[in-house]
Amino acid sequence: MAIELNWMVYMIRCSDCSLYTGITTDVERRFQQHCSGKGAKYFYGRTPEAVVYVESAHTRSSAAKREAEIKKLPKLYKEQLITESN
Question: Per the database record, which ranges form the GIY-YIG domain (predicted)?
Answer without folding.
Answer: 5-83
